[in-house]
Each structure stands twice: as C-alpha cells, then as structure tokens.
Amino acid sequence: MADRSAPSCHLRLEWVYGYRGHQCRNNLYYTAAKEIVYFVAGVGVVYSPREHRQKFYLGHQDDIISLALHPERVLVATGQVGKEPYICVWDSYTVQTVSVLKDVHTHGIACLAFDLDGQRLVSVGLDSKNTVCVWDWRKGKLLSMAPGHTDRIFDISWDLYQPNKLVSCGVKHIKFWSLCGNSLTPKRGVFGKTGDLQTILCLACARDEVTYSGALNGDIYVWKGINLVRTIQGAHAAGIFSMNACEEGFATGGRDGCVRLWDLNFKPITVIDLRETDQGYKGLSVRSVCWRGDHILVGTQDSEIFEIVVHERNKPFLIMQGHCEGELWALAVHPTKPLAMTGSDDRSVRIWSLIDHALIARCNMEEPIRCAAVSTDGIHLALGMKDGSFTVLRVRDMTEVVHIKDRKEAIHELKYSPDGNFLAVGSNDSSVDIYGVVQRYKKVGECIGSSSFITHMDWSSDSKYLQTNDGNGKRLFYRMPSGKEVTNKEELKGIQWASWTCVSGLEVNGIWPKYSDINDINSVDANFIGQVMVTADDYGIVKLFRYPCLRKGAKFKKYLGHSAHVTNVRWSHDHQWVVSIGGADHSVFQWKFVPDRKLKDSLHIAPQESLVDSNSDESDSDQSDVPELDSEIEQETQITYRRQVYKEDLPQLKEQCKEKRKSAASKRRERAPGNSIRLHFVHGYRGYDCRSNLFYTQTGEIVYHVAAVGVVYNRQQNTQRFYLGHDDDILCLAIHPLKDYVATGQVGRDSSIHIWDTETIKPLSVLKGYHQYGVCAVDFSADGKRLASVGIDDNHTIVLWDWKKGEKLSAVRGSKDKIFVVKINPFMPDKLITVGIKHMKFWRRAGGGLIGRKGCIGALGRTDTMMCAVYGWTEEMAFSGTSTGDVCIWRDVFLIKTVKAHDGPVFSMHALEKGFVTGGKDGVVALWDDTFERCLKTYAIKRAALAPGSKGLLLEDNPSIRAISLGHGHILVGTKNGEILEVDKSGPITLLVQGHMEGEVWGLATHPHLPICATVSDDKTLRIWDLSPSHCMLAVRKLKKGGRCCCFSPDGKALAVGLNDGSFLIVNADTLEDLVSFQHRKDVISEIRFSPGAGKYLAVASCDNFVDIYNVMSSKRVGICKGASSYITHMDWDVRGKLLQVNTGAKEQLFFEAPRGKKQTIPSLEVEKIGWASWTSVLGSCCEGIWPIIGEVTDVTASCLTSDSKVLATGDDFGFVKLFRYPAKGKFGKFKRYVAHSTHVTNVRWTYDDSLLVTVGGADTSLMLWTYEVEGHRDSRQCDSEESDLDSEEDGGYDSDVTRENEINYTIKALSTNIRPMFGIKPHLQQKEPTLDERQGVVRGSRPPVSRALPQPEKLQTNNVGKKKRPIEDLILELVFGYRGKDCRNNVHYLNDGADVIYHTASVGILYNVATGSQSFYQEHNDDILCLTVNQHPKFTNIVATGQLQLLLFMCGMQ
Q: What are phi and psi of 638, to 5 degrees?
C-alpha cells in the first residue's frame, strides 16, 4: 500500500516580492520600531529596512484590501474581502493576532481607522449600503453600525480633536458623522458655490473642526464643520489618492506621480516629482504616502515602495518592487544559480535573487508574457507570449537572440531538453513545436496528438521522449525530436523523467482531491531527491505532498498566503526554496524548504500561528488511513439531534391553524381540570451519549440531567428537586467552581443554555441566539464569570460568553467533526481546549474570534479521537483521554508523552488537587498521581462490590463509565446504562439512581393493588420499579428482544410482556421467571391486555393489524380480531370482559366481541354508556378534545383515565403531559400541560389508587412519577403547568377600545424602505442601481397606499453644479396642535416640578411650558412616535426616551 500520509518536512515563508498598490490606498506605514508595514495578496508584511528582513502575518484567508495603524504604531488592523470577511488586529512586533472582528460585514472591508486613544476602530464594508461599523476592538464587540452611503466610500477617519466625530468620503460625497449612544448619525458636506460636487478620495482632520480632503480633479477641499470653505486649486495635476497627517504637517500623493508636503495650515513646503528621479518613469502613480520625521514612504500603483529622505529628496531609494497589474503566469528557475525569472501580463520579465531577496534585472517586452524557461547551461531565457510568438534572450544582458512567431494563440509552456539541444513550445493551438537550439531555433518537429490546449510538458532524462498534458486532462507521449506519438505501453515503461511538472499521471494521482475539476491544479513540481512535490491550485493554496503520490485523496501540508489562484510553482536548482507566483495578486512568494531532520531542532520555535492552520485541516491531518472507531463512539457520532418539528415551531404552527382556532373559539369549551400533577421523582440518567454531566453541589446533593429535566438529588432523603426551564433534551451540564450554579445546554432550533441555582432552582441567565440544533458541551471558567459552549451545527461552533450579562464575547467554527468536550484554562480564562473526533485544539481568544492551533504530535504518533480533557497544575499542562485508552500529556501545544490508562476509550477524567481520576469503557475507575506516573488505585464497578444496604440492582459488571466526579469522600460515577453510583474510597459501591439504557421505552404497566410498576424497553430489559418512597428498581430481567408493551394480571401475580419480534411471554411478577411464551406473529406486539375480573383472557395486539385473544388457563389462542386497516395502537376491555375497544394507526375506533373476535358496530352514544374496565384510548367522542389544533395522526400517543373517571391524562409527540376533564367532548379542549420529557411521551398510567401518574419518554429513556394534587390541596408553589393552547376570547372578552387598538396595524406607515430619509440627497438624485429587492419589491406592488417619497420625475434630472440657485428659505416649526392618545398610553409627564409638560404627536416630541404656553420640539425622529417615558432617577433629570415606528427601530434619549 502506498503511503498516504503527509510529508514530514515543511515550508516556511521567507520572502514576498511585491506590494498591493492597485485598487488600494493609504496602506503603507512606519511602525514604532521603524519597520514598514504593508500588505500583498493575503499576507500582512512587516519589513525591516535595516536588517532587510520580513515578518509575515498570516491570519487572513483572502485578499487584504485595507490597513490601519494604531496611534501607538505597534498594532495593525487589516480587513479582507470574501463572503464573510473579517478584520484582524495584530501586533507588528510578534505578528500574532490580538483580536478578530467578524460576523457583521459582507463582501469585504474597504477602509479602517483607529480613534485617537486607539480604543475604537471604525470599518466600512463593501456591501451595497457601504455599512459603517464602530467596534470596541479589544472585546471584539460592535458598538454601532449604520448604512454609510449609496455609493463607494474611499476613506474614513476619526476627528482626532473632537471625540465621537468621524468623517467619511467617497463617490461624489463627504459625510460628517457623530456617534451618540449606539447610533451613528451622518450629515452631508455642503459643497455650495465654493467648489464642484465631485468624488473625494482621501481626507485628514485638523483642529477647530477643519477637515482637509483630496479630490478627483487634484484640488484640496478645506471644510469647516460641514461646509466647504476654500479650495487649494491644482495641488496635484490629477486625483489625490493619499493624504497623511503627522506632527510636522500633511503629505499628499497623487496620480501625477508627485508627493507634496504641507505645513499644519496647509501651506506648501515642497514637491517631490518621482517621475523625474532616477528610478522614475512616465505614468508613475502614487497610491500611499507616509511622512515620519525626515523619512517619507511612497507606495505606487505598480507595486513599488520608495523611501525618500527629505533632505536628499531627488534620490529616492527603491526598497520593494513587484509586477504591476495584470496576471502573472510565467516562472522559471536558473539551473545553476539561486535566481528566479518571472514574466507577466504587464509585459515585463524580471530576474530575482533568492539570496539577496532583490530584483536584479528587468526588461520590458512588446507582448504580455505567459511562460518562461531557462536553457540547461543557463545562458538563454525563452519567453512564450500571449500572441503566439516566443522570444529568446541572453540571461547575461537581456539582449534578444531570436523572436519567432509560428502560432496564433498564446504559448502556455516552454521546456528546454536536458541535453540543451531542443526547445519544446506548447501552445493554445493544441500542438507542441520542437526547435533546434544549435540551428538558431529552427523548427525540427511538431507533436499533434492533443485535442485541447497544452498545459504542461516534461522531457525524459535522455532527451528522447516528451510527455504532455492538455486541457482535457489527457497525458500523451512523443518521440523526440520528430514528434511521433508513442502508444506502446512497453516502450514507455522504462522512461526516466528529467523533471515532473505534469498534473496527470500515475505518480501524481494523489494530488487530486476526491471531487475536483481537472483544471483546478495549475502547477506541480517534484523534488526527486527529497521525495516531495509542491502543487499550486485555484484556491490560493500551495500544498506539499510525498512523491510519488499514487492514491487519490492523499494527505498533505498546506500553506496559505496567495489570495487568488496560484499559477505556478517551482523548486530552486538546489531544492532549498520553493518559488510560487499568484495570478491576480501578481506577487512572488519564496518559501524555505525545511527537511525532516531540521524539524527536530526547530521544535522549540513556536510554529507560525495563523487562523487557518498552515498545517492543513480537513483531509490534511498527518495520518494515513483512519483507525477504526470504537463501536460505542461510532454509535454516538451517528446519533442525530435534529427534529422534524421543534417546540419553538409551535406558535407558528398554531398560527397556521388560525381558521380552526376561530371555529373552536366560538364554541363553549369545557374548563381545564381543577386538579393538577407535580413532578415527584425521575428514574434515569443520560449517560449513553453525554459525558462529565454529574456533580456534587456545595451542600452535598447530586446534580445531573435526564430528558429535559435538571435533577438535584438528595441522597440522604432519597428525594429530588427539578429544574424545568428546558423544553427539549438536555445534552450537557457543567458546574460553577463554587458548586452552587449549574449550566445546562439543550437541543433546539435556536438552542439555549440555562444557568441556574441548585439551591433555589431558579434560572440566573438564559443564553440563546448562537447555537443551531443543540449545545453538546459547556464549561465554566475558574473565576466563574465566563462560560464556553459548543454547538452541534455542522461547524460545531464554539462560543465564549459573559454569562451574567448574556453577552457573546467570541465565537469560531470549531471542527467539521463532532466535538465532545470544551475546557477553559483555569489560569488564563482567555485560553481553552476542545477535543473530539481526530481533534485536539488549543484556542486563545482574540477579540470577537478565537484562534486555534492543533496539538503538535511530532514523532509520537497520530491524532487520535479524544474523548475527554482536563487542565493540569500549571497553565500550560493539559491532559486528554483517547479512544484507544491512552492519556495524552500536553505542554503548551506539544504532546510530550502518552500513558496507557484503560482498555478501550477513556470517557471521563477529573482533576484533583494532587492527582487525577479517570474512567473508561472497561468499567474501571483509576486514581493517578499528579504526573500520571503511577496508578494509585483502581475500582472495578461490579455487582460483588455493591454495599449490602444498596438499593437497586446493577445490570451488568463493568459498565462503560461516562462521568466521574469527586467530593465528600466519595467518587461519583455515571454509566452508559443510566446508573449513578457512589464509590466509597474503601471500595463498597452504592447505587443511587438508575434508568433504562439507550433505546426507546414504550411498555408501562402499573400493579392492580401495589405501588409498583413495570416497564419494558428497546434496551431488551424488563424492569419492576418501587413507587413507594424508597424509589428503586426491584427487579430486572434481560430479554432476547426489545419489548413495546406489558400488563399485570388482575391479581397482580403474572406479568405479560409483548416483544418486538412478534412473540410474547407471561412471567411471574415477583421473580420474572417465564410461565409461558407464544409466537404467532412476525411484527412488533404493540399492546397486551388481561381481561378484567379473573383475568381469563389475554388480548395481544400486533403491528400487523390483528388482535389475538388467548385463554390464559388453557394457553390456547381462542379468537382473532380482524378488520383493522392499520397497526393497532391502543386496546381496552369493558368491565364484563366481553367487549374489546381497539384504536389503530389509521385513526379507526373498532369494537370486537370476546373471546371469538367478531367485529361489532356500536354508535358513539352507546359507547359512552358502556362501563370500561380501563380507558387508554385516544379516539372517540369522549376524548375528541384531547387532539391539539396541530394534531396529526400520531400526535397523541397515550392516555389514561383516573379510576373516578374525572381526569384524563395524555402524552403526545411533543413531550407534553396534559390533563383534561373527562369526557373531553368538543374540539380543542382546555388542559393543563407539563414539560419534562423531551421527545414523545410514549405511555402514561395512573397507579391503582390514582395517587401517582407514571409516564415514560420514548427516546429520553426516563420514567417519571408525578404526584396527583386534588383541587384545594394546592400549596402556593408556582404552577408548572401552562394553561391551554387557545386563550379563549370567551373568557371575558376585550373591551371595544382594547380590541381596536389590538388590531391596529402599523406596517403601512413603516414603509418597506426608509422613505423619509434623515439625510441629504433627494431620491431622484441618488445615482444608484436599485437593489434586487427594491426592483422586485416595486413589481410586487409593495408601495403602500400612503407614500411620503417624492414622486419620481419622468427624466433623471442632472445635477447642474454651475447654475445659480435661489437661496432656499428655512422653515422653522413654531406650533403643533394635537396629542397622540388614540393608541398610546402613559405618554404625558410633568418635568421641572410641573413647570413643563412633555408629550408627543406625529414624529415630534413636544415640551410645553405651562406658564408661557410656548412649545419646544425634539425633531430627530423620522416616523410616528409611539411611546415616551421620563427617567425618574435624581441623577438624570430631564432625560426622556421616545420610541418610533420603522423597520429598523431605534430609540432616542433626549434632554
């Protein structure tokens, strides 16, 4: 088998040639350390001119397009493009991420700016509204956001002399913003007559509300406040792209290639014309300037960076060069020297020195260049052009040797033969031409076998063969130099290739991902000596594979940096470096190759950290084929927690059934019953798919969860208290370090985490809004202030919360595979670890993001699936338990050793002060010393070890252990089988809680005269439970098959059990030993019932639509009931034992005579008169009301009537237990409803004396006991029940005014777009394409009957700047008549001890002076005000808040 693992060597980015000057500006600065910071492609670069050294920031995964420098000049903020772009704030000294700001912008981040003290950052998006956002960047928190403008914004800046003021400029506008509270309000700059309305490209703020801005025509516009006061004409000859303010004054740079310096009052100091200098050229355009002391940095459109010393300003120093705009495809390396040659669509060919990291030669050609090759002796450089010609130059002085044009379409690939005699030229015309080098490049052969353009070529070592790849992925071979195609397989076998740059062929099968287009990989180059190869692809990734790489989907290491497609990649002649070039980012990257042996020495250097592991994710783990997963883990990863319908969907579903509701509401319905039930005890613990969810509280009680209930269990009194705030399965539980609060996370469409107090059972905080489908892991920080949670969405999102405030601090996508545990570092709450399927990651918080690094395994093995983790005794030590039974010990992110701890997976570990305790699938609890050197003691969980007084029974020896906790001198253990045990340090084990195991529980029967019940489940056990205060399992028996029903005989001595294979047994109710067993059916037995009285007959219903009747005494089948058209769901006998009532899955209510089974038809009035021995049916007129409004066929799964026939209890598919009055006639009866089960409630039964209601949940495996409380005996506890679905109108209807106000619809006024714009430009002057929604919206006729917009003019009016306009007089609001009382309340207040009255009408807040009768107005709202309140606090006098109508609502506070 070929080795599919990733190579053990790696690449390290050493140098990037280029600078992003195109489409970006103001992106070049000096840092405090006098280094230069800029960006190219997806890399932030910090360049030290003194040491000629580069450092790289690799936290982005797409093109960076904006950069801002913090006022202290150490931190840098960069923004990228992409579907979900983010901003990184990073340290230019360590190049590590400090903060990530995300989840707000779309498309890209166009500009960034820090405020004066560097606490806040403003960003502008590239979306259609050019959204402006203000961030508290350290916390990663959005403070404010507002739509910026309808057209592009080019620059934004904080006013450094006034707090909370910003200025932005762009296409034909400038705006002055003020930040007040969390609202950003813009005012447009008024151009007036002073200057033309035009595009403003850059700006700088000065004192006294003065703003300088650079315009497209080369003028500088000077603003005071929001008005244009003067212009400096002709500052530059063309657009001013960059303006930089410093202590000495301002520097500007323009398209005319000049840099101008100005003093603080914008009087000119000097001009530097870069076109006139030695390095200058015609058409040089300045995109960025930075002036610091006597140095000026200049970045140009064509990717150069100049440094100018002010007193020698005619001698600028060129410190960085790169290719200009246009795609870069051509790359060749010199055969004997460390040189790389590149050629681009900018028509230049450049030679770079890989040792000096500098450009050493450049030559401009006539045509765009697409490929290059250097002859074997290093003398000639051949260049293939886009027009089908090729040129050969002498490398020495770049003079032309020959220029040949034989083809019409672009030349894609050139290669010299190893003996130096031939040059093969492959073109877009699907052919390869062979030229003789010695014969002055005379054409000597032609290869025509391809049907598509030629993409790659390689010569054989003896120069006798050539292999080619074409656009169709075909690989062909030719004999040289004639060009005859070779098809004979034998002949091809022995060929040695001189180079390997082809993308198809057996040797490179593995480079192709499983599902990929044949043109995704642009370039390959093999290093035969090192047995590795590099590839370049369309996703901006450079990958390192083993060579040869035979099997598809091989593992690799991947390196990010290029943003767009990587067009070419080559090893240097001595394999020290890899050179890669980017197409659209036209940058050249030089990577240092670090072979295996060097790796060991470099381990002490922390690897370059990045948001995306350079060490590749997904397929890219360094391991070969995945080991088999343990069966139990396998099972767990396949559980799905998705529901068809979530409880959150209920209101919507009811809304859809409005018509039904109306008809129901008109009928008089039965009241809900007066009696109620209260949850009393729950048997069960969720162990089969959860872990570490069991703890001691402060007071020594035990907290855990099952179904949707958080349980606090007192083991001395054997009582339980319940947290019932969840409405679906709880999947995880964590305890606060003080052991008084607990966090639980549940399943749900928008799933929530509840933090609650174990003493009062009251919720302290509920966190929602970030996790989809469910929360599978939670953990508190050591100070108890933070909480980490992991979701079960596809990305297993990790969120860090400040739980008391309910605020999300940071979030990140965790992993594609399941994550089992998250743990916060007890010493540093900004760090955490997560473990899961082949996953061990170390995270640290950076603002709104988390930055992860994979655990470095080194030579110690491969990433295993981790099941549990804890932190150790110092901040860098961590321990994790694997699925193979090892414990891994980590220091920082490095694995230092592994210790064998268990046979099979380690599911749980717990850190103690002086050691650790672990539990595994092998059913053993192990105590360890603090270094995992030695195991101090082991406890095996066995029946023999049960303490003599222990109640309940252990189902099997050595059950799989899922949770361990220590305290109060005991070890608490939770098992997969749903048991909770307490292990005394000396050895004896006490069983505290138990329940059914994984699999649905359906069968339930209560004893006819004792407080016991029986359950049978898909877990293949039959269990007898004591319902008296001892609450324990009395007996258990393993069955050969799972079961779905059971029933006690009327004397309570026998118990009948129906199994899933169509058989049933009758067992002795005390010993559970078989009495008889039968099998007449193939399908599941769904219900089984003894006839009343002597219990002479047994009716057995199955899912194949029949009911069989057996004579118990003679053990013979005496009758068969036929006629049901679907499976049987429920069955009841009448009191005489002569009649059987049957319900089926098709909602049929049928009657059969016993014992023969003859079908009877009985009218519904008669049915009510019949005395039934039991009522568990869900159909018929007596229980019509139990079906909910949204009832589908199987919605109500079970019912049971009390023996006084007054109250009917039901269970349904939503997990609700409900109580109805009986008979529940008429549709949609009223009820009391209780939530505790999570999924469907499969069965409900009253005990013989109605004192308890027993319910079982299907998939939640729990058995719940509810005490029945008769009316009048209710204490003043809060009622857990929610009353019925319909808030019936007849309960006392509405007063007519209230009804009218309730029905007012405000949507007409809140127009679908904000029509009364709060600022500036009239709608018909806004030069902007309508968005898709607007276009469609107009078509849909969503324009409301009342429109406040101006009518659209017939023709688009042009903006006549030059024309004289009549001055427009201002209107001032003087008096408003009216007060809004028709649909508002509590909206008139006294202010200033009764001197003034405040109220509102329309969109105006009005202050009325009682003495003078005058009014003053607050007019910032732009639509109807609906509410008003006054701050009563003495500290905040005269503060008023008003709220208005609008699609995007906001509130204003006013004084």
A: -90, -10
- Gap between the terminal Cα atoms of the chain: 79
Cα separation, 845 vs 849, whole angstroms = 6
pTM, to two decimals: 0.78
C-alpha–C-alpha distance, residues 23 and 27, integer Å: 11
Paired tokens of 42:
């997806």
- Convert the pLDDT of each residue in 281-340 to its tens digit: 888 899 999 999 889 999 998 889 999 998 888 888 889 888 887 889 999 999 999 999
- Selection from 215, 295, 287, 205 nearest residue 253 by Cα: 287
Give yes or no for a contact between 272 and 308, defined as CB atoms under 8 angstroms apart.
yes
What is the strand order of the sheet 173-180 is part of? Answer: 153-158, 165-170, 173-180, 183-188
- Contact of 1219 with 1231, CB cutoff 8 Å: yes
Buried b (16+ CB within 10 A) or exposed e, 461-474: eebebbbbbbbeee
For residues 298 and 287, what is the distance between their CA atoms, to the nearest angstrom?
A: 8
212-250: burial string, b at 16+ Cβ within 10 Å, e else: bbbbbbbbbbbbeebebeebbeebbeebbbbbbbbebbb
DSSP string, 304-340: -EEEEEGGGTTS-EEEE----SS-EEEEEE-SSSSEE
- State whether the Cα torsion 940-944-948-952 is positive or negative: positive
User: CA angle at residue 834 from 828 to 836, to 5 degrees?
Assistant: 165
* Ranges of the chain with pLDDT below 70: 1-4, 514-519, 597-630, 647, 657-670, 858-862, 1190-1194, 1272-1369, 1447-1455
Q: Decide: 1427 and 155 in contact? Cβ < 8 Å.
A: no
Closest by CA position to 322, among listed 356, 357, 292, 366: 357
Give the residue among 298, 251, 253 at the shortest CA–CA distance from 279.
298
How would you classify the pairing of strands 1107-1111 and 970-975?
unpaired
1041-1072 b/e (C-beta count within 10 Å ≥ 16 → b): ebbbbbbbbbebebbbbbbbebbbbbbebeeb
Q: What is the pLDDT of residue 1447?
A: 56
Side chain identity at 545, as an amino acid letter? Answer: F
Write out the two tokens for 1254: 């027993």
Q: SS3 for 595? A: coil
Encoding tokens for residue 569?
């990649």
Q: Residue 1277: its pLDDT value, please? A: 40
**Per residue in 178-228, pLDDT tens?**
998 888 899 999 888 888 888 999 999 988 889 999 999 999 999 998 899
**Distant-in-sequence, close-in-space partners of 1365: CB < 8 Å, separation ≥ 6:** none
In the block, which residue shows the tokens 């023996």?
1203
Predicted pLDDT of residue 111: 93
Of residues 460, 470, 369, the one with CA closest to residue 422: 460
3-state SS track over 397-410:
CCCEEEEEECCCCC
What's at 1446, amino acid-wise? Q
Q: Are 1422 and 1431 in contact (CB under 8 A)?
A: no
pLDDT of residue 602: 43
Say if residues 475 and 468 touch (Cβ distance below 8 Å): yes
CA–CA gap between residue 1105 and residue 215 (Å, rounded): 84
What DSSP string describes 186-233?
EEE-B-TTTS----EEEEEE-STTEEEEEETTS-EEEEETTEEEEEET
DSSP string for residues in 1418-1441: E----S-EEEEEE---TTSTT-EE
Strand ranges (E), 1074-1179 = 1074-1079, 1085-1090, 1097-1102, 1107-1111, 1116-1121, 1128-1133, 1139-1144, 1149-1153, 1158-1160
List the structure tokens of 1292.
């006392």
